[in-house]
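Hi support team,

I've been running sequence recovery on a batch of backbones for a student project. Most finish fine, but this one hangs at about 90% for roughly twenty minutes before it completes. I'm not sure whether the input is malformed or the queue is just slow. I've pasted the C-alpha cells below so you can try to reproduce it. Let me know if you need the job ID as well.

Thanks,
M.K.
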C-alpha cells in the first residue's frame, strides 16, 4: 500500500471512530488538536462549535447528533447562502453545515454533502431521514479525485477543516472549480488550517495528518493553490490563531509550527 492510500485509509478509520463516538474523539476541533483555542479545557461538541463561530440559534435548529465539534471555523457565516441556492459541502461529516444550509435554501434549493467515510455518511443520512430533510442528499466521494456532482451546477461550495487532509490541494480546488456555476456566480467559502512551516515529506506523521497538522500548507501556498485552480478574487475573510506545534526537522533540530485557521472566499469567472 502506498503512503498516499495509507493516509486516506487512516483518515477514514479515524473519522469513522469519531462518527461512532458522537465527536468525543474529535482530533480537529476548537477544543483539541490543531484548531485548539485552549489547551486545558475540553468543550462539548456544541460549545466547541460555538467557539469557532457557529450561532447558537442555528445549532438549536438542526439535528443535535450532527454536531460533532469538528471544524476550525464557520464558512456558512460568510457564504451569503439564500433561498433556492444549490450548495455543496465537502467533508460533510454528520451533516452540521448541510442542515444549516438546508434551513436557508428551503424547498427551492438543495444541499449536497460529500464525505469519504461510510460511518459519517450513515449518520448524516439517518439524521436527514429522522428529521424530515427532503432538500439534502449525501454522497461518497474522494474530493481530490472526483467530486460526484455535475459540472457548472453549484452556486456555493463550502468546507470546514477538510481540504488540509487532501494530498493534492490543487486537484481538489480544480474539482471545486469544475462543479461551480460560471460567470462569477459560483463561489467557494472554505474554513481550513494553514501553517507557518510545512513539514518535510520524509517526516510526515499519519496521525498528525489525520489531526489537521501535517497536511497543512502555508497560507501563501494555500491561496496560490486556489488561484492555480482557476479562481479569482481570492480573499481571506477571517483568521484565527491556533496551536504551536513542536517537532524536529530532518537535521533533528527542534522546530515549531504555528497553526492558524482561515476562512477564504473565491469566485469562478
Amino acid at each position: 500500500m502506498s503512503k498516499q492510500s495509507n493516509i486516506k485509509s487512516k483518515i477514514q478509520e479515524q473519522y469513522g471512530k469519531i462518527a461512532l463516538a458522537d465527536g468525543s474523539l474529535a482530533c480537529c476541533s476548537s477544543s483539541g488538536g490543531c484548531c485548539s483555542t485552549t489547551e486545558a479545557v475540553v468543550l462539548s461538541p456544541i460549545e466547541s462549535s460555538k467557539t469557532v463561530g457557529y450561532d447558537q440559534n442555528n445549532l438549536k435548529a438542526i439535528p443535535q447528533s450532527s454536531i460533532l465539534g469538528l471544524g476550525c471555523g464557520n464558512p456558512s457565516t460568510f457564504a451569503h447562502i439564500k433561498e433556492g441556492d444549490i450548495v455543496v459541502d465537502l467533508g460533510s461529516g454528520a451533516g452540521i453545515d448541510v442542515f444549516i444550509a438546508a434551513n436557508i435554501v428551503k424547498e427551492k434549493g438543495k444541499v449536497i454533502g460529500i464525505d469519504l467515510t461510510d460511518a459519517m455518511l450513515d449518520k448524516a443520512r439517518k439524521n436527514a431521514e429522522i428529521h424530515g430533510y427532503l432538500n439534502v442528499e449525501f454522497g461518497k466521494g474522494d474530493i481530490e479525485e472526483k467530486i460526484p456532482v455535475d459540472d457548472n451546477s453549484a452556486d456555493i461550495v463550502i468546507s470546514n477543516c477538510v481540504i488540509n487532509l487532501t494530498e493534492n490541494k490543487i486537484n481538489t480546488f480544480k474539482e471545486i472549480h469544475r462543479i461551480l456555476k460560471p460567470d462569477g456566480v459560483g463561489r467557494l467559502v472554505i474554513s481550513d488550517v494553514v501553517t507557518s512551516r510545512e513539514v518535510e515529506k520524509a517526516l510526515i506523521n499519519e496521525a498528525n495528518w489525520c489531526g489537521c497538522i501535517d497536511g497543512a500548507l502555508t497560507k501563501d501556498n494555500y491561496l496560490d493553490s486556489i488561484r492555480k485552480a482557476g479562481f479569482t478574487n481570492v480573499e481571506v475573510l477571517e483568521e484565527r490563531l491556533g496551536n504551536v506545534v513542536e517537532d524536529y526537522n530532518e537535521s533533528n533540530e527542534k522546530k515549531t509550527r504555528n497553526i492558524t485557521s482561515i476562512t477564504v472566499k473565491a469566485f469562478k469567472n
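--
Follow-up from support: It reproduced on our side and the slowdown came from queue contention, not your input. The beta strands are 28-29, 32-33, 86-90, 110-115, 136-140, 156-160, 187-195, 232-248, 254-267. No action needed from you.
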